[in-house]
Amino acid sequence: MAATTPGQSDLGVRVISAVVMVAVGGLALWLGGWPFAAFVTLVAAGVFWEWWGLVLRFATRPMSRIFWMAAGIAYLLVAAVALIELRKDSLAVACQLLLMVIAVDVGAYFAGRTIGGPKIAPRISPSKTWAGLAGGVVAASVAHAAMMPLTDPDFPTLDLGAIAGFSLLGGVLVAAIAQFGDFFESRMKRKAGVKDSGSLIPGHGGLFDRVDGLVAVLFVVGLLTGLSQ
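-> structure tokens emitted (229 positions)
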């Protein structure tokens, strides 16, 4: 029998962890109501715990810690409420947004590794490239277009150009905001002197590592929703 290399072993753990995360999150999303609200609240609490752990490493003054604690509560509360309300209004729209954020990560990963090229912000996150961001935009746009028949009541009357335009705009916005969220968390980790926000998820680091882009996107959605009301 061939020996298993550390990379192969780590990949297996990452895949199993990802499957479990998708299964649990997908079930909660499908159920909606209080089970989904409880799931989102639990995840938000876990992310805040990791947020606070990072803050304790780089914020030494009491007022600085209070500021970061208040900012973390506001940031995660707006994002969590936005996701709960989004699911309450429409399962399809919630799925569309979540799939777009996942697509950004997947597209950026494969495009970045395949194409490489110039880094976006090497001092903050050395692995992120412009090619990866472009791949994330394309993947998110495809995910948006794939869900439009379920989310846009005007879809039957739209031509291909309109569908492509709406989807590309959505892909650019979601990819850009998710990338900012990733950079924001990377900056916090760099200030704290750690590689991962936590070790809760085998092969993936912490909860904040996995949802940094999603939290940023949902935070913006929450602000825009609040301003429009």
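The two ends are 63 Å apart (CA to CA).
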